[in-house]
Structure formats: C-alpha cells, structure tokens
Design a protein that fits this description.
The protein is an alpha/beta fold. The chain is built from 7 helices and 10 strands. About 30% of the residues lie in helices and about 25% in strands.
C-alpha cells in the first residue's frame, strides 16, 4: 500500500473572537482543516470571512480563541518557524536593497553572512530577479516587489508556505506570470517548499491553482465547502470542466 502523505497542519475546531468597540465579535467559528504534505490548498471567501485571520493563526501571529492548531502532530506555540508568509502589500523595507530584503528573514536562522547571501541569491534567481540584487523597492514594479516577497519567504525554506492574496494588487499580466511561476516552484520536488495554503477572493484563481479549495462563509466564517479539483495542469480557463468548478464554488459562496 502507498503510504498516506503526512499531515503538515491540522486546524482543530478553531474559533476566533475579537473585542471591538461595539462588543465581542466572532470572526471564525469551528474551523476544521488539514493540509497534507505536497498539497496546494486555496481558501476562498468574501471579504470579512476571516481568511487572513485563519492564515495568521496557522503562522502563529494570531492565537485562536478556542480549539488548537497542530503542526506535524504537535500543538503550535507562538510563531511557527517552519512556516513563511507572503503578504498582499509586499512588506518590503524601502531602505533595504532586494538582496538585503531577502536576507532579512535569514538573520536569525543562518549566522554566517556568506551562507545567508548565497541562499538569498539562490532564491532571487528562482523568482527571476537576477541582476536586481542592488535595486531598492522604489525602483521595482508591483510584480517585481511581490517576487522579492516570495523570494524572502522561500529563502527560509519553510515546510509550509502561507500566502495572503499575493496577486490581488498586481496588474493582470504580472498576476498570470507569478501564478505560473509559483506553480513551477511548488511542483519542483527539488525545492524544500511543496505545501502551500493560499488565500484569495477570486474564484478563477482558486480553480487554476488548487488541489483543493476550501470555501468560507462569513459572519462568522465557517467552512461552507471543501472541493478537490481534478483537472490536469496546466488548466485552461475556457475548459468546460474548469467553468463547472467555478460555478460550483460560486454557488457555495452565494
């Protein structure tokens, strides 16, 4: 028998409440979700469904109000150093060069400067930014800035890559190119990173990328659906089967 892939992250009956001026608000309720090694999961839902909050709880930036999150079978405490986040707004420090921004995530992990630089250079190359090592963020397009953010996350060689609407602020062409490159990086088993959880509100993006789509309803966020996408890659948006999946996700959201 073929062994089952390892469960990398296990979200068990997780809820999250925030105290706001108008009182306590439940953002997420009774979330149960697992990601196996090698999976590409996309979480989709309307604004306010708690998608970003769920991703930050997986990373350890936000603590659940109830339930627990297990990483490789063990409860998480604080920031999970085996995960890395790519943010919607790039998160680059404007006074640092491309190389320095990518090295930043390695400072507490790789002590030797030469090794840090070598690894940073490696992942700058993987995202197609060779030659831009000494450029500053102000000199880059939006797509290039997001490539820097992706290189910084990949450079720490996380077990789990978390991505919060990483393409939403990009132009159409940059978004298409980066999605294709992300799939290339994820599918290359020579890379350390082979498990991804990505958040989006764009249904077509979810169907294009995901092995599995998790649909969140809102107020509070609950899992409204869990769909495995059985379409060979690369996927064509005009494929009738692709459109069937889009309709199915849309119906669950609606």
């Amino acid at each position: 028998m073929t062994p089952q892939p390892e469960i990398i992250i296990d979200v068990e009956n997780v809820s999250k409440k925030f105290l706001l001026p108008q009182g306590e608000v439940t953002i997420l309720e009774d979330i149960q979700l697992q990601a196996q090694e090698g999976e590409f999961i996309v979480i989709v839902g309307p604004s306010g469904a708690g998608k970003s909050t769920l991703l930050r709880m997986m990373n350890g930036l936000v603590i659940p109000s109830a339930g627990r999150i297990l990483f490789r079978g063990k409860p998480t405490r604080g920031i999970n150093m085996e995960t890395a986040m790519v943010f919607q707004n790039f998160g680059l420090l404007p006074w640092l060069t491309v190389l320095q921004n990518v090295e930043l995530g390695l400072e507490n992990r790789v002590k030797e400067l030469d090794r840090r630089r070598e690894r940073a250079q490696k992942y700058i190359g993987k995202v197609g930014l060779d030659g831009y090592e000494e450029a500053y963020p102000r000199e880059l397009s939006g797509g290039m800035k997001q490539r820097v953010g992706l290189a910084r996350a990949l450079a720490v060689e996380p077990t789990l890559l978390l991505m919060d609407e990483p393409f939403s602020s990009l132009d159409v062409l940059s978004s298409i190119n980066l999605r294709n490159e992300l799939l290339d990086i994820w599918s290359d088993r020579d890379n350390v990173v082979n498990t991804v959880v990505l958040v989006t509100h764009i249904i077509e993006e979810a169907v294009e990328l995901a092995d599995r789509i998790v649909i969140l309803g809102s107020r509070p966020g609950r899992i409204a659906g869990n769909i495995r996408v059985n379409i060979p890659r690369p996927r064509q948006k005009r494929d009738p089967l692709f459109l069937e999946y889009v309709d199915e996700v849309f119906s669950l959201l609606a």
